[in-house]
Task: inverse folding
């Protein structure tokens, strides 16, 4: 079952809006909550995406699946899984830093985000400069 | 992941190259932010930290203007005007948000509260939702 574009946009929009509202409340000192609580919409959204991705990947284990059809697709899904985990690692490290659970430098917090952005840039660059020339 | 690149281009109205440009700007901004906050380049002003975003906005505007002029010359007048109007709205909202945030970080004024700073982003979210319904 695949969600329509409007459903996926609605899902993203709802969680982004909730997160921004909570962020504003926290930054304006109207809500003295823990940073991990502020990030609840992000955790829920990431969990939904991870579950959807894992269910799709597990579809390969079904009987009657022809592995010759989806090797390229599988590589893409593995990259998406890594990207999700990198994003989750960044958010967790950022929360820990903001909550002063750790005194590590901000550079270490940003390493997963940089890895994610570099990967995304390579994929986008491939789509712009390589696929079109083909 | 949740959206394919084609869907993103349709939804946001930006070309793939523009999305690439804004991604690069985010990467450069995060590096400058870390340098500023970690103290490796504490003397950097907040305006300089935000330069990648301002540059990406400027380049995107330039790119959009050229594409719209070409579309206009090719007789696609309605498409050219609609594209120019949409992209300029998005970019101006983004620019206002960046300016307000930068000003807040520089001056720490109490009058400039975060709800006000975020208001362009909230407007942007509503516009993106409306556009998604149309694209769908």
Result:
């Amino acid at each position: 079952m695949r969600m329509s574009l409007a459903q996926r946009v609605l899902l993203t929009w709802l969680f982004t809006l909730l997160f921004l509202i909570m962020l504003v409340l926290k930054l304006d000192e109207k809500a003295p909550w823990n940073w991990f609580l502020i990030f609840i919409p992000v955790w829920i959204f990431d969990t939904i995406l991870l579950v959807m991705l894992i269910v799709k990947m597990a579809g390969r284990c079904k009987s009657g699946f022809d592995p010759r059809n989806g090797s390229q697709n599988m590589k893409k899904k593995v990259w998406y899984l890594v990207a999700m985990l990198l994003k989750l690692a960044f958010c967790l490290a950022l929360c820990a830093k903001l909550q002063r659970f750790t005194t590590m430098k901000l550079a270490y917090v940003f390493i997963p985000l940089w890895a994610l952005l570099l990967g995304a840039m390579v994929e986008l660059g491939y789509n712009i400069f390589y696929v079109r020339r083909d | 992941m949740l959206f394919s690149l084609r869907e993103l281009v349709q939804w946001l109205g930006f070309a793939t190259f523009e999305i690439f440009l804004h991604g690069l700007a985010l990467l450069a901004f995060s590096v400058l932010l870390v340098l500023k906050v970690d103290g490796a380049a504490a003397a950097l002003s907040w305006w300089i930290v935000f330069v990648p975003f301002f540059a990406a906005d400027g380049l995107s505007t330039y790119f959009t203007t050229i594409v719209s002029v070409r579309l206009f010359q090719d007789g696609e007048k309605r498409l050219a005007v609609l594209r120019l109007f949409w992209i300029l709205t998005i970019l101006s909202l983004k620019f206002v948000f960046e300016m307000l945030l930068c000003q807040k970080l520089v001056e720490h004024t109490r009058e400039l509260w975060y709800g006000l700073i975020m208001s362009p982003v909230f407007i942007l979210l509503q516009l993106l939702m409306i556009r998604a319904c149309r694209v769908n």
